[in-house]
Specification:
There is one protein chain. The chain has 4 helices and 12 strands, in the order ββββααββββββββαα. With about 150 residues, the chain is of the alpha+beta class. It has one domain: SET domain (Beta-clip-like). The strands form 4 sheets. It has a 4-stranded mixed sheet, with no helix packed on it. It has a 3-stranded antiparallel sheet with strand order 3-9-8, with no helix packed on it. It is globular. About 30% of the residues are buried.
């Protein structure tokens, strides 16, 4: 295992326990498949943990993956809807993050507090991010398949 769970300013997060090279798989995303109807019955906090994989289907995101925090300048992304991969080299003790906009279709927003120079202040759907960033993420292969189908 190349990470540990630690307390951080967002509650808990995932941190590298060794140097991780670009392209390495860090976490395999797991959880039962649930429907939009099931997500709608949940509290806002619980619903936010559902990772959308199609118009009406979600992965009920489980630990440890659910603890990976958002960043507008992430060091990982979700590849092939299943693998959290490093998109740049990650140093020991560095927090592992991903851009939630690469997995959100429409109707969801979150105030961003990542404090990165490139912070967008509000995390929204994929189509809301700048086109150059959309292209970068698509080229890196870290956009959920159902979103790729809609934008390509």
């Amino acid at each position: 295992m190349s990470y540990t769970i630690k307390n951080c300013r967002f509650g808990r997060g995932i941190f590298a326990t060794r140097n991780i090279s670009k392209g390495e798989t860090i976490i395999t995303i797991t959880g039962p498949i649930i429907t939009q109807k099931e997500v709608d019955k949940r509290s806002d906090k619980e619903a936010a943990n559902a990772l959308q994989i199609d118009d009406d289907l979600y992965i009920d995101f489980q630990e440890p993956g659910v603890l990976v925090n958002h960043s507008c300048n992430p060091n990982t992304g979700i590849s092939r809807d299943t693998f959290l991969i490093a998109i740049k080299d990650i140093s020991v003790e560095e927090e592992i993050t991903w851009d939630y906009s690469t997995s959100v279709d429409t109707g969801w927003t979150m105030r961003c507090a990542c404090e990165e120079k490139s912070c967008r202040k509000v995390v929204k759907d994929f189509e809301s991010i700048p086109i150059n960033l959309q292209k970068k993420y698509l080229k890196q292969g870290i956009v959920m398949t159902y979103i790729k189908k809609k934008v390509q």
